[in-house]
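Worked example (supplementary).
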Amino acid sequence: MSVEFKTVLTPPPHVKSALDVPQVMTHVFLALLPATFWGMAFFGYRLTLGPIVLSLLSCLGFEALDCFLFRKPLSLGDRSALVTGLLLGLSFPPGVPFWLPIVGGGTAIILGKQMFGGLGQNIFNPALVGRAVLFLSWPGLMSTYVVRNVWTLSKSGEVVSSLWEVVTTATPLGISKMQGYQALAHLEPRILWRLFWGTVPGCIGEISAFLLLCGFAYLLWRKIVRWDIPVFYFLGIALVAVLARQNPLYHLLAGSAILGGCFMATDYTTSPMTPKGRMIFGFFAGMITGMIRWLGGYQEGVTFGILIMNAVVPFLDRLLPRRFGVKKI
Amino acid sequence: MKLRTFPQGVFLSPAKELTAHRSIVEIGSPPKVVLPLWQHTGAPLEPLVKRGDVVKKGQKVADVEAFIAAPLHASISGKVTAIEEWWHPSMGKFRAIVIENDGQEEVERREPLPKDIENLDSLFLRKWIREGGMVGLGGAAFPTHVKVSPPAGKIIDTVILNGAECEPYLTCDHRVMVERPDTVLLGLRILVRACGAKRAYIGIEENKEECLTLFAKLVKYMSIPTEVVPLATKYPQGSEKQIILAILGREVPPGGLPLDVGVVVNNVQTASAIGRMAEEGMPLVERVITVSGECIQTPGNLEVPLGTVLEGIVAFCGGFVKTPQKIIMGGPMTGIAQSSLQVPVIKGTSGFLFFSRPYEKKEYPCIRCGRCVDGCPMFLLPYHLARLAEFQAFLEAEEHRVLDCMECGVCSYVCPAGIPLTQFIKLAKAEIIRRKKGGVTR
Ligand code: SF4
Ligand code: SF4
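After joint prediction of all chains, the assembly is encoded as:
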């Protein structure tokens, strides 16, 4: 046979799974969309579209800028900046000034990711780094919550704009921190249901537990994330709530617990690689979150709970799995 | 039906429908065979013939003193025209005996084995297996007589016949089980007798239902307790350590062999070859291979004399319908890419695959998704080992058990970042072993 052809000589395996990095990122992005759209609908697009779009554009832009300045190949193709941008955008209260998401995106991408060496190298979740820096720098802006008048929880709302019919308000966690859970339950007896469906004041993407859980179920179904980190995270929160004699279910539904536990703590790069490590990571991140809410100076502890445990991940990754052929003693 | 399996691993699309229903076809004697002097795990052979000698089919043409080695037999009758370097499917080039067919079809047979195998001496059987040139036909080509010879102080209580055939595309073992079940069981009896085991298992992946039902019926007539075990269709179910764990719940210790836990694992096709030798007196001179992939005109399962060059096999299958971009000897997970149609079939050849696309994936940095850790059947941290290999931190890689890796390819397969993890790990292993042999320390 004299057919001439050249064959490719690459090492085995010669077949590879279909899933690649951009697809992983796309799935996470899609999973966040229901909660995103609900946030826009509930707070009104005038207050929410800006922060979300600007934070997306800022993350993409700063990553491109970094690649350009340091003469690296453009890395936007991995689509991870989209996920960071969306997660950051969802953590803003509605109606923040336009420059805040821009600064936040820059911080998240440059400080949170690129300075560590880019995708896969960072210790801390970039979106949470952005959120933490903004929260510490502009605490006032980052904790002024507005909502349409009909949905406010506290009676003392101050009308921001009669046109938009929104008033400043306290979040459920704010009220329960200041006046106790009993007071909140008194103000709104159906608070757990409102938290579940998402008709409460809060950050744009954190309010609807139901839609966030739907997104998470989608990720589980597509085998993008595992169940273990969120479950142990919620266990940690619930345990502290029980110790504090508060309603554990309330603490799971309130604030960013579900957004953080299902979408931020599960970030591949900043969570441990072994089942054992993930258990410890999730549980303690939940405990710290609960402790901050209970004893700390802030009403919400998700950001720092996860960031603190991010720092422990390199240590947790040194716990080797059991060796094949050597039974546990 | 309760399926048994091992922890971790990965579900692959089996892609066996191209050939699973096709009966074994004998391709007959080729005009020429090329027999490389190294086609088993162990010491390379020395030729017993020289250029110009006339040999018969079944005549021993190469052997060596070493214990871990299996002799080689002429697979056609003809004249030795050369002993020279030739394309080798896994070693680039290696010395090989080239025999031209003389059309005489002369054969040299041994005495068939007596029927009362259970009364034969096991030492005699081990020697008989070695003389037949038997090696594991699943791919690793480990000499069979070594497997069934436990060192002093070790006892083998169980023989496992491996019919998992977990590599996608390959169906040769499947066809052997369907078409030659009696020969397989005869071979199993010989193997059991040779190592002195008390019981046997036949592990078959659940996607080969006809084999499961067939053997469940036949094992009732076995003289030793034999059980057919349906296994989950999961890769690498056919790996020795994994099939032992699935069937017996025993784990082979690091660096150990199956006989350290009292087990011998043999491929079903090895058993069939042994059974055939017992019946017909012909040593290992041919084997069944699968030819598949979208480029070949007629895919199928072929019985080919050892040493047949790939060119002849392609011609027998009607040539190519598409130009192949990748030719693989073996399965897609562990097989070796080939550059030439001149490579011969060796004892470890389970098949040839012809793909029109190279199936490569764009590479990204590791995103630490943990899929390689969740998939590794040896409980390793492939992402970490690959990194240590990249930085040449070989001592640390050894501490992190890099030598436990069995190069199954699962980690590279699952990685969404397309990192060739198995390749990095293989390099580290090779370097560590080289340094150990060379006595180099740091
Ligand atoms: S190739 Fe080695 S490291 Fe990779 S999955 Fe297989 S055994 Fe584990
Ligand atoms: S599968 Fe690939 S991307 Fe995921 S942790 Fe392993 S090496 Fe990294």
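Two points are worth noting when inspecting this output. The first helix of chain B runs from residue 122 to 131. DSSP finds 13 helices and 17 strands in chain B.
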